[in-house]
Write a structure and sequence with these properties.
Layout lengths: L1 H9 L10 E7 L12 H15 L3 E5 L3 H9 L4 E4 L14 E4 L3 E10 L19 E9 L5 E8 L7 H15 L9 E6 L7 H7 L3 E2 H4 L2 E3 L17 E6 L1 E8 L3 E2 L2 E2 L6 E7 L3
Parallel strand pairs: 1-2, 7-8, 10-12
Antiparallel strand pairs: 1-15, 2-4, 3-4, 5-6, 6-7, 8-11, 9-11, 12-15, 13-14
Helix pairs in contact: 2-3, 4-5
Protein name: Endonuclease/exonuclease/phosphatase family protein
GO molecular function, one term: endonuclease activity
Organism: Sphingomonas floccifaciens
């Protein structure tokens, strides 16, 4: 019953010209053999089906390795992905962005690092152990030529990294004014590794709207990280927007027995261009 209700929530019942822009954020979890029954090879089909059944126009992923991105687009006709990894190549984690080429045209793309030297690949500042970055793209929707911008990130994970997460959030907001498409409706997807009562969320929500909180309708649990257990304990995966009205949002709990699409539940939101 819950799955049927969620599918009904996600169903698009509006005319084609008025269809919203559907966006997903999805931490796909790195491919490691120690995940056992939930290793990537066991769940990649399920991860692809999770995307396919909800048909987002664009997906911001985190922890994506190149072979995972390639595996997904092989299973998702019409989709492509782009991005470089956090060290500036393709051997490590990407903040890869997948998009449906039948609905969107990629106009421009790029990346920057969350550090004191944001143009330096692999750069680290503020005391956390791994490079953190943002991948961005400017898109044009095929059916109505509307353009928008999406930024995708993954903030530091340790409890003691809140100050670094806050600095990263401030840098992202500053970059909104300098990246291409500064006047366009904008989406920020990510695994923020902190909760909505944090200073990081307060910084971002000073300018961006949390889609989960703003949605007219919501489905699924509010929390998103579950560690392959199916019982989430924190809402750390967010979609934030400006220049859009959020129609609905849903947290997706796809699994096949003990196999889950990821250790995070992906989140989707339907967005309408413009504000109420």
């Amino acid at each position: 019953m819950k799955r049927a209700l969620l599918l009904a929530l996600l169903a698009v019942a509006t005319p084609a010209a008025a269809q919203p822009l559907r966006v997903m954020t999805f931490n796909v979890r790195v491919p490691v053999e120690s995940d056992g029954v939930n290793r990537w090879e066991a769940r990649r089909d399920l991860a692809a089906r999770t995307i396919a059944r909800t048909r987002p126009a664009v997906v911001g992923t985190q922890e994506l390795h190149q072979r995972q991105g390639d595996d997904l687009v092989r299973r998702l006709p019409g989709y492509r992905w782009f991005g470089i990894d956090r060290r500036g190549d393709h051997a490590d984690e990407h903040m890869g962005i997948l998009y449906d080429t039948r609905r969107l045209r990629l106009i421009e793309q790029g990346q920057f690092w969350l550090s004191d030297t944001p143009d330096a690949p692999g750069s680290i500042s503020w005391g956390h152990p791994y490079p953190r970055m943002v991948t961005w793209g400017v898109f044009e929707r095929a059916k109505d030529k509307r353009r928008f911008r999406l930024l995708n990130t993954h903030l530091p994970y340790r409890a003691e990294d809140e100050a670094a997460r806050e600095k990263g959030a401030r840098l992202i907001l500053a970059k909104l004014d300098t990246l291409p498409g500064a006047m366009l409706p904008t989406i920020l997807t990510g695994d923020f590794n902190t909760t909505p009562d944090s200073a990081t969320h307060a910084v971002l929500s000073s300018r961006l709207t949390d889609a989960w909180l703003a949605a007219g309708r919501r489905g699924g649990p509010d929390k998103t990280f579950h560690g392959f257990k199916g019982i989430p304990d924190r809402r750390i995966d967010w979609i934030l927007t400006t220049g859009f009205t959020v129609r609905k949002a849903a947290t997706l709990t796809d699994h096949r027995g003990a196999v889950w699409a990821s250790d995070h539940f992906p989140v989707v939101a339907d967005l309408r261009f413009g504000k109420k």
